[in-house]
Amino acid sequence: MSYVYDAIVVGGGVIGGAIAYNLAKRGGKVLLLEKERLASKASGAAAGMLGAQAEMDGEGSLFQLARKSRAMFTQLAGEIKETSGIDIELINKGMLKVALNEQQQHEYKRVIAIQRQSGEQADWMTGEEVRRKEPVLSDAITGAMHLEKDGQVEATQLTLGFLKSAVARGVVIKEFVEVYYFQLSKGKVSGVVTNEGNFYSENVIVAGGAWSKKLLSKTGLQLDTYPVKGECFSVVSHSQILTTTVFSHGCYLVPKKWGRIIVGATVKPRTFCKKVTVEGISILMEQAKKLMPSIVEAEWERAWAGIRPQTADGLPYLGEHPIYKGLFIATGHFRNGILLSPITGEVIADLVEGKPTSLNLEPFRVDRLVRQLT
Amino acid sequence: MSYVYDAIVVGGGVIGGAIAYNLAKRGGKVLLLEKERLASKASGAAAGMLGAQAEMDGEGSLFQLARKSRAMFTQLAGEIKETSGIDIELINKGMLKVALNEQQQHEYKRVIAIQRQSGEQADWMTGEEVRRKEPVLSDAITGAMHLEKDGQVEATQLTLGFLKSAVARGVVIKEFVEVYYFQLSKGKVSGVVTNEGNFYSENVIVAGGAWSKKLLSKTGLQLDTYPVKGECFSVVSHSQILTTTVFSHGCYLVPKKWGRIIVGATVKPRTFCKKVTVEGISILMEQAKKLMPSIVEAEWERAWAGIRPQTADGLPYLGEHPIYKGLFIATGHFRNGILLSPITGEVIADLVEGKPTSLNLEPFRVDRLVRQLT
Amino acid sequence: MSYVYDAIVVGGGVIGGAIAYNLAKRGGKVLLLEKERLASKASGAAAGMLGAQAEMDGEGSLFQLARKSRAMFTQLAGEIKETSGIDIELINKGMLKVALNEQQQHEYKRVIAIQRQSGEQADWMTGEEVRRKEPVLSDAITGAMHLEKDGQVEATQLTLGFLKSAVARGVVIKEFVEVYYFQLSKGKVSGVVTNEGNFYSENVIVAGGAWSKKLLSKTGLQLDTYPVKGECFSVVSHSQILTTTVFSHGCYLVPKKWGRIIVGATVKPRTFCKKVTVEGISILMEQAKKLMPSIVEAEWERAWAGIRPQTADGLPYLGEHPIYKGLFIATGHFRNGILLSPITGEVIADLVEGKPTSLNLEPFRVDRLVRQLT
Amino acid sequence: MSYVYDAIVVGGGVIGGAIAYNLAKRGGKVLLLEKERLASKASGAAAGMLGAQAEMDGEGSLFQLARKSRAMFTQLAGEIKETSGIDIELINKGMLKVALNEQQQHEYKRVIAIQRQSGEQADWMTGEEVRRKEPVLSDAITGAMHLEKDGQVEATQLTLGFLKSAVARGVVIKEFVEVYYFQLSKGKVSGVVTNEGNFYSENVIVAGGAWSKKLLSKTGLQLDTYPVKGECFSVVSHSQILTTTVFSHGCYLVPKKWGRIIVGATVKPRTFCKKVTVEGISILMEQAKKLMPSIVEAEWERAWAGIRPQTADGLPYLGEHPIYKGLFIATGHFRNGILLSPITGEVIADLVEGKPTSLNLEPFRVDRLVRQLT
């Protein structure tokens, strides 16, 4: 008899890590399979913003998911540090979503009103107030939403923190193991076929980011997701101090420890190509200079790109396969994978356990957009 | 109407590069698809030995293939340098296949006799003669086959040289494009389905190394190949000069320009895991010290691993798919991919053109070992 | 008039960083000059052990300095995290100084007795107890000193943490600025001459590690220090779990977060050459295998070396120049620079301020070994 | 008695390498000392242009030196390849010095006339002719000097090629050895004092680039040189093909093998700081886009900087020390170190041997600008 795991998680990024971590906390014997190296795709490329309010306007199911997830980070940081020794570098210094023209100003003030009705903190700051708070920011900024609760983490550390904490709780992780097919019969999943042989479980969770679609296409489920390249670069400066994350249309500045600032991110849909282009850097650099002119004096560090999974309606897929019981899916988090990882880990663990979820997952059902089901 | 290529090559390693280069020289409009980066797998990890005589004993079809391929390098080096500016660093200083005990001595003398009958140069050198030629070699070496014609190249440069020369002749290369399926109907191939959409051609060549098997499994062809990890490391020394490549059972030393010596390679079957282990380095290091004691003074550079495709009978697969016309296969070169790339490029181009090949390819037929054909 | 700093620190390693941090906390306007990149020499190469008891036998002035410094880490970790966001990864899981033969056993039991008399915790564990605590350790270990209070930190993080916290408190850091000479007259220092011009202060602190001697030789002071190369390597394993730092004669294993283990360190005196040799890795690897046989399954990561400043009597130099007032020296910490950095920062700041130090610095006077004073 | 070398070369860059190589060819027993790693400063950062005509207008002693040196490369490439196996990647595809406005056009036509009088090939090409030759170049280019003989090499390969060829001829190279002082007496040099002890020779050649000045200041010679940072970056494109090196005011594009293009270089005087700034990349990127708009589609590779030695009058220093016999100096080559290395190696070897040089070295005397000689 082969060993049967309580669950097999496919994907060694932040979503797979969060799910494995939650399942292990509940006592399950879990196997996590990653086709290359852990945290080597979108999770390792992310800037780590927790922009529940900056990225969403304050209505809809994604906003509810995001604010709930954001609230979980403080406790999570402690748990991960304790279990794995890894500091996820949670910073709670808020975010400035800055306006560069009157139209944005008008729009952001409207969003503030909505978010306040939802019970969130959101304030309007004038350009002068913005520069009093962050003197390095440009005169071109005419005002900003100040979002006190939108923080940030170090994305790779969070991913490794989930994974290492999962290992500490007995999860087995295998890198360079690629799942080829699922073992499916009688409407149920019973395992996976990989380049290292077969592994068995009645619960298989696909958390393969932009690569999930291909894997699931073999089950008759055509997810409406597509890859979106995002290019970033980082600089270091010890004299140009930025404290708050700055978010604008088309460019954000995320200050990290040691004077590092991550500048991101371009949005290039429908490609798996991880190459950083001159165009990408050039556009980001010009926009960063508009937000923070003295960034020109900072030291160049490096550039990179990640491939993020976007969906047709912009909502992630979180749920069970419409045909095969025990086959769960968690993908399509686009730019919010880091932010949404704690809640995703929790609700998927609930689904696997057959427990009611703390949140209505109807809007995230995997068959909501199904075009083709054969 | 979509554009139809004369041929599509799947795989951006040395074999795919050699095929694309040969097809382009003959005037074809070729597309080459690589699922990650060019030369990023076994081709970029190889030490570059051209051990036609060192690796094979002098009989059989593989030896014929190898000696024919080895003879092509001098002209090839010139062509690639001229077309692409890339120096493949062909070194023709011979090889010493060293014996460390009487049994090996006996065996190697037997092989010398066989190889001479095949018309190859092969001489026996005593331990003293070996050390006169290469003073850094150990007293433990009791003798060696001296193979004047077994040279070496820089493997990544050869791979990039093929590819760049192919580009110069009109080949289109796309990285980060993964072939999911072939378009097959009426016993013919008509194109490929990828993560970047469909591409069309009536000639598709699979040169995906250890990853070929999975791709072909969808066509009903179960190749009897498996991955074999090989670990290597490199050192640099300007005072310990080694000129000739040294080949022994379990360890080889390949002297490169700038005092670099590549020490290779372990043989770990049936894994795609590219991790270098402490064990791998430890074993290689002990063996290298036995061959060349003063290597301890050399500077450590780095360690790496490659995943090479081996076959059940040790022969590569070179030929057309047994069911689908136009679908060609070139894989299973194991440790001889660099050595065999020129002849592979030529014979596959012959097959695609429907020309007779200069060599009998029967022993390399893809259906010779077929166990399962559904 | 040129700007006059309250103090100029020469050296951007952990000692320079600790001094700058302490001076800044006391309100001084400090300039720190580093001839290359920060944390690029011994401080960036260290394994980060806080071996107050493991490295010293429990008597003498160095032991007093070390235990005092070790006690400062908990508070320091909090301060640095708060000021700079940097986690120095302080781990307080103790150390096992393992015996591999009877002589060591005897010796270590003697040391335990001495250390207990000094009021330190130190226990003898049998080989079985050691393996119950750390099942991956070898049967060859016949017993161990268990030192509960000897912890460890991440050395680069500590160095950058000091430096970044110093910057947050107003310290100006300049990289790539090499001090050529001191400005000296009438028995006092008044500044430094560098490749970027002159900088002025009546307090100059030399914390240049192994490079301090050369700089000070121009002042008539011939420190009896010499460089000692130490080579290390790191591996990663998620299945072979080690929790406690293991210290043996000639080799230590320092478990870091994420399954990383640092294996160190060779001792090669009187060279500034940072090259890692095959010999160094080979020796460490054999010793590591003796301590923890399953380390062979771990993944190889990388190797590196640092150049540490040793002194003739093994004690660091901490004090003022015998001729020139205001010129302070803090070097010669050999393998204990990380451990001794907090106390060094404090006492040097005391000396600069002219305050009595919390510890008798007589044994560390810079002229104690002076051979030549012209 | 200590070993006495025929010559000691201080500096492991392209100039030191060329000198050691020439001295060794003439039979001398040479020691080369490098304070860090070989080719780690300006020589490893250079784009490798041989712009004898592009960089100089056609008159004066520097032009004579440069054209003579340029003529030496073809033979040198063969020698180095033969001796060391290293391909210096000499490309003789000419250079386009492009004009972007009428003033430049006027100026360049004047230079063409001068250069032709000197017997050099130089042609004017209209903007259309330029784009016919290189279709990727911009419409903004109104014309260009076409300099057929200005080629390029791979700078690191040239440097390592000199050094490796020198080693093959018996030169001893020591890295991480820093010269502190010269041993001087009775108007003669007799050796050097270093961090690894003393080395003896009656001929010492200082080829330390921007670091030479400091070393020589201790001999009473104040060279009027200063460091100039140059920042560069590289991109790779297989679809945007550029063949000829493009040189403009403030930016050049140097096409290398494998589709790589080096974009250089900023000019930031009087700093040893090797940090690449956002400003540097931003300026180069904008200028590169003006020359070759489709460069935006190329893949970003990396950015780096080098510190080049400039002199007050723009001419290198090539000659003997005005006071100390046997102490030779070769520095101040600014942006032309690669180009001038062959002739520098030759004439310095002539000086050391006491032979007449093939060129009048009066304009390059080391005491021509001496301001202070004590």
From TrEMBL, chains A, B, C, D:
GO biological process, alphabetically ordered: thiamine biosynthetic process; thiamine diphosphate biosynthetic process
Catalysed reactions listed for this entry: glycine + O2 + H2O = glyoxylate + H2O2 + NH4(+)
Domain of life: Bacteria
Residue ranges annotated for the FAD dependent oxidoreductase domain, each copy included: 6-351
InterPro entries with a match to the protein in the record: FAD-dep_OxRdtase, FAD/NAD-bd_sf, Gly_oxidase_ThiO
Gene Ontology MF annotations: flavin adenine dinucleotide binding; glycine oxidase activity
Pathway noted in the entry: Cofactor biosynthesis; thiamine diphosphate biosynthesis
Pfam entry (one): DAO
Keywords: Oxidoreductase, Thiamine biosynthesis
Recorded GO CC terms: cytoplasm
Enzyme Commission code(s) on record: 1.4.3.19
EC class: oxidoreductase
Protein name: glycine oxidase
Protein species of origin: Paenisporosarcina antarctica
